[in-house]
Amino acid sequence: MATSRYQPADLRRQIGSPRPKGRENKDTLCRNVLIYGHCRYEDQGCAFSHDQNKNNSNSET
């Protein structure tokens, strides 16, 4: 009886854990740009979008 209790766990291990959904950083405006108007990490590998005009056009409507 105790073995049937652990079978679902064994099945889950075989399937593997789901991969976390990654954010679409290139579509998300950088917080530094929102707050300060610029990002000091833009040229150093900041993964977020720094184009203010692209994202403002969506919110003006």
TrEMBL record:
GO terms for molecular function: zinc ion binding. A zinc finger (C3H1-type) spans 24-53. The keyword Zinc-finger applies. Residues 1-27 are annotated as: Disordered. Residues 24-53 form the C3H1-type domain. Keywords: Metal-binding, Zinc, Zinc-finger. InterPro entries: Znf_CCCH (IPR000571), Znf_CCCH_sf (IPR036855). Pfam families: zf-CCCH_PAN3. It comes from the Eukaryota. The keyword Zinc applies. This is PAB-dependent poly(A)-specific ribonuclease subunit 3. The gene is PAN3_2.
